[in-house]
């Protein structure tokens, strides 16, 4: 097994429906016995970032925003900036999630600009990539992931990658109950490392954490976590349930 620290992120998306319920989710984690070797990051909606930050008592758990604009300030109604997130004491931001790319039409270039701005503000980035079902069936998985990564490579220097976690999330596996097989996930993670090796450096390829997302639950996490190149998970639905603790402990 590699020296890359196991990473489990909970992407709450637009959930839960009240700050009280958000605090209840935190309380479950505060009381749980978490594998001390796992880095745990939870990502509530923007409005809950500060109350959730304040509710976390386990120092092993840190917080991530779900999005940030690439401009620091100005006439951009509805947006928040990376520097505002940083000032609020939030260390991470998720960028390029497929829901942002698909529903909110974020291009590879926009995701790359956001990544640059987040790194400049001192945030760490959970950078999401992944192919649709049509693209997988068309044999385009590697090409799509490389295209998403190459836009970010153009905006970054090799040293930036120590602050980036890549989340490979096949769109067809998100929220569908159709998890990628361990072989499918491992294969794409190997391809991601091969690309980083050529486009950035062999060190970045071997040291960058590549995590998997898409219908991860307590039943499939252990098998996936046993793969050489799967360094953790970005979890949606199951991060809102008590089984999230089992996913955090998948390597225990
Ligand atoms: O960011 C998380 C992914 O979208 C996975 O969501 P899911 O675990 O509900 O499939």
UniProtKB/TrEMBL annotation:
UniProt-listed Enzyme Commission number(s): 5.3.1.1
Statement: the UniProt record of this protein carries the keyword Isomerase: yes
UniProt KW keywords: Gluconeogenesis, Glycolysis, Isomerase
GO molecular function: triose-phosphate isomerase activity
Annotated catalysed reactions: D-glyceraldehyde 3-phosphate = dihydroxyacetone phosphate
Gene3D superfamilies noted in UniProt: Aldolase class I
One BP annotation, GO: glycerol catabolic process
Keyword Lipid metabolism: no
A Pfam family this chain is assigned to: TIM
Pathway in which the depicted protein is active: Carbohydrate degradation; glycolysis; D-glyceraldehyde 3-phosphate from glycerone phosphate: step 1/1; Carbohydrate biosynthesis; gluconeogenesis
Coiled coil: none
GO cellular component, one term: cytosol
Highest taxon listed in the record's lineage: Eukaryota
Subunit structure: Homodimer.
Family designation: Belongs to the triosephosphate isomerase family.
Name of this chain's protein: Triosephosphate isomerase
Organism, as annotated: Candolleomyces aberdarensis
Lineage, opening ranks: Eukaryota, Fungi, Dikarya, Basidiomycota, Agaricomycotina
